[in-house]
């Protein structure tokens, strides 16, 4: 049955949002979600997991990585969805496995750009046979949705039919690298954004590019835009952040001490500060950005010695420019952004 005509699709979409091992829904909850249930839904056979049993509904929970069992809880009849354990369940994904998924996803994108129809099922079966023999169908589908999420954050058009799944985990850095390779983005600068999560992803991408090949310093922006939302945010350039972090090489550019800790992707943790804050009319450029430890960053914003610390930094770091504060008539009121750059 085509997905568009399958009343059980909302169930599959709901289960895909869960990362837990067990999900329980009463028959009343399921009926409300699906617009009603037939009388036979109160029988175990209705929720059978065998391959030849009513694929139109079975594939919704199986595709999300679960088996279904009719169970009673607190006197209420419902369905217990229990995650399927594959042979590789819990094992880290290798770069080779992730590359198989990225290549499959790229095929979908190319087909859509050419106006061609490509069977996702055939593509999945091909991927499972070629390089994902130990992975389940649901694991493959989950990774494809992870790729959608990363593409969204990089500002790249994603394929139809794979809703973004943001809990990417520790494979995100590898996915970014593989996407840049397959999409031919290795020499492209990242685009500015005001979305913090997207900005962080684009910084990772830009740092990878700057590390792999020689680049000139990114131009950044002399006239930093703001986006209109419930709270004002500056549109930040991820290339400028990446450049400052790479230039610092794991040491605070203010106190020159090593970064205080290493984050989960193995990178030393430093924050990027605008020497002339954006709220004071400073540009978002490499010569106005320094990478510093959180302690120095807070001091530069709130410390009694902030001015002295800033002058010391400018005198020592010849690559930084002492941009003047813009007059009130040359800039907008940016009090909501004070202390954020």
Brief digest:
The model is unreliable at 328-340 (pLDDT under 50).
Present the secondary structure layout.
Blueprint: H1 9-16, E1 22-26, H2 27-34, H3 55-63, E2 66-73, E3 76-83, H4 95-113, H5 120-130, H6 137-154, H7 172-182, H8 196-212, E4 226-227, E5 233-234, H9 238-248, E6 271-274, E7 289-292, H10 294-302, H11 306-316
Antiparallel strand pairs: 1-3, 2-3, 4-5, 6-7
Features:
341 residues, alpha+beta, 3 domains, three-stranded antiparallel beta sheet, two-stranded antiparallel sheet, 7 strands, disordered C terminus
Mean pLDDT rating = 87
Strand order of the largest sheet: 1-3-2
Per DSSP, what share of the residues sits in E-state strands of 2 or more residues?
5-15%
Q: How would you sum up the major sheet?
A: 3 strands, antiparallel
Q: Note the run of SSEs as H and E.
A: HEHHEEHHHHHEEHEEHH
Q: Please identify the oligomeric state.
A: single chain
How far from one another are the termini?
53 Å
Structure summary, number of beta strands: 7
Find the structural class using helix and strand composition: alpha+beta
Number of helices: 11
Q: What count of domains describes the coordinates?
A: 3
Overall geometric form: elongated
Percent range of helical residues? 25-40%
Task: Point out poorly predicted stretches.
Answer: 328-340
The gyration radius over C-alpha positions equals 25 Å
């Amino acid at each position: 049955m085509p997905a568009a005509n399958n009343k059980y699709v909302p169930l599959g979409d709901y289960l895909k949002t869960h990362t837990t091992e067990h999900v329980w829904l009463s028959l009343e909850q399921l009926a409300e979600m699906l617009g009603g249930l037939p009388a036979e839904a109160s029988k175990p056979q209705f929720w059978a997991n065998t391959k030849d049993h009513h694929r139109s509904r079975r594939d919704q929970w199986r595709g999300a990585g679960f088996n279904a069992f009719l169970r009673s809880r607190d006197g209420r009849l419902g369905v217990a969805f229990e995650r399927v354990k594959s042979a590789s369940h819990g094992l880290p994904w290798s770069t080779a496995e992730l590359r198989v998924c990225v290549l499959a996803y790229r095929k979908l994108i190319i087909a859509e750009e050419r106006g061609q129809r490509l069977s996702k099922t055939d593509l999945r079966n091909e991927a499972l046979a070629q390089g994902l023999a130990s992975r389940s169908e649901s694991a493959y589908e989950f990774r494809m949705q992870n790729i959608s999420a990363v593409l969204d954050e990089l500002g790249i058009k994603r394929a139809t039919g794979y809703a973004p799944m943001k809990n990417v985990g520790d494979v995100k850095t590898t996915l970014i690298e593989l996407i840049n390779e397959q999409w031919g983005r290795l020499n492209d600068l990242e685009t500015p954004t005001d979305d913090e999560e997207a900005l962080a992803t684009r910084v990772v991408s830009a740092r990878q590019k700057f590390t792999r090949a020689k680049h000139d310093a990114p131009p950044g922006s002399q006239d930093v835009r703001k986006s209109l939302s419930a709270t004002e945010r500056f549109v930040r350039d991820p290339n400028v952040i990446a450049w400052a972090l790479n230039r610092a090489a794991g040491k605070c550019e203010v106190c020159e001490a090593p970064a205080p800790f290493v984050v989960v992707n193995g990178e030393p943790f430093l924050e990027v500060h605008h020497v002339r804050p954006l709220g004071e009319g400073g540009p978002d450029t490499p010569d106005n950005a320094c990478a510093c430890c959180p302690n120095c960053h807070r001091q530069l914003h709130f410390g009694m010695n902030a001015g002295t610390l800033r002058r010391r930094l400018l005198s020592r770091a010849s690559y930084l420019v002492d941009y003047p504060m813009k007059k009130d008539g040359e800039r907008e009121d940016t009090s909501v952004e004070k202390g954020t750059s």
